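for the recovery benchmark. tokens below, seq after
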């Protein structure tokens, strides 16, 4: 009996409730799943109706062939480079008044070449922020100083890990495009690597979820879609393409590699220093 109690107590301590996590938050999960089922234009409408501002900003990047672009849904209303120089940024959630672009409302910034699920990703951050006293003051301070301590970086990394795992575990319900699948799996693997020094469970999670195998499968799927769309383009002299496949590209593209869809499409990370694993921590 005593042993059982001890084990139960130890187990309870390990599974301590995370107040701000979207994993294990049924209301956030229901809302994000509902959002993920919508068509992109309806997703924008739905998020705005919930009092969250959304801005699509031109990243100036060339997107891989056949990938989804937010700029085809809505005209960009500015340049991403005007608010950040973070390379590869696809989306960012700003607290209300954190930057001039977020005046008066929590604001989701989407890069013109962001993935469809980037909006769900950022929406999950909005849900985290709603329950997280630490986020907004820390984020604002980081924009002002451009610095984060290792402890502060961990605060951001923990929020990213929660969102990435939620997206990965709900991926099939989000009607993902092939670039969403590749992006979410590879970004989760990147996040796990960034946690290696303080979270042994992260590498185990990658193993358990078979992320390497998943990524290879998705990359093969993308390669096949690309081949099919090119064949359709040749056969139809620019005519119809297979339903749901990548659009034919005007010029031959290089053979896709596992990083082809993601190297220019790094999922949003909270701060510049986090995007550069080799950068020295602030202190
Ligand atoms: Zn994020």
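predicted aa per position
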């Amino acid at each position: 009996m005593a042993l059982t109690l001890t084990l139960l107590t130890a187990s309870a301590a390990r599974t301590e409730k995370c107040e701000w996590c979207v994993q294990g938050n049924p209301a956030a999960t229901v809302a994000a799943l509902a959002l993920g089922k919508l068509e992109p234009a309806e997703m924008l409408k739905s998020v705005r109706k919930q009092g969250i501002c959304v801005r699509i900003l031109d990243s100036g990047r060339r997107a891989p062939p056949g990938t989804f672009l937010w700029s085809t849904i809505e005209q960009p209303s500015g340049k991403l480079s005007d608010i950040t120089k973070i390379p590869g940024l696809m989306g960012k959630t700003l607290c209300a008044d954190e930057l001039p672009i977020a005046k008066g409302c929590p604001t989701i910034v989407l890069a013109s070449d962001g993935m469809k699920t980037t909006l769900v990703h950022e929406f999950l951050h909005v849900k985290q922020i709603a329950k997280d006293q630490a986020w907004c003051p820390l984020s604002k301070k980081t924009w002002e100083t451009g610095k984060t301590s290792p402890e502060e970086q961990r605060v951001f990394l923990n929020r990213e890990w929660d969102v990435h795992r939620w997206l990965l575990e709900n991926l099939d319900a989000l009607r993902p495009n092939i670039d969403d699948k590749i992006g979410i799996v590879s970004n989760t693997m990147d996040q796990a690597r960034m946690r290696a020094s303080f979270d042994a469970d992260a590498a185990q999670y990658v193993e358990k979820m078979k992320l390497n195998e998943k990524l290879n499968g998705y990359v093969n799927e993308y390669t096949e879609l690309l081949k099919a769309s090119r064949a359709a383009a040749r056969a139809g002299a620019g005519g119809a393409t297979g339903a749901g496949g990548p659009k034919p590209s005007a010029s031959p593209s290089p053979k896709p590699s596992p990083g082809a869809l993601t190297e220019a499409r790094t999922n949003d990370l909270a701060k510049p220093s986090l995007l550069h694993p080799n950068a020295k921590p602030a202190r």
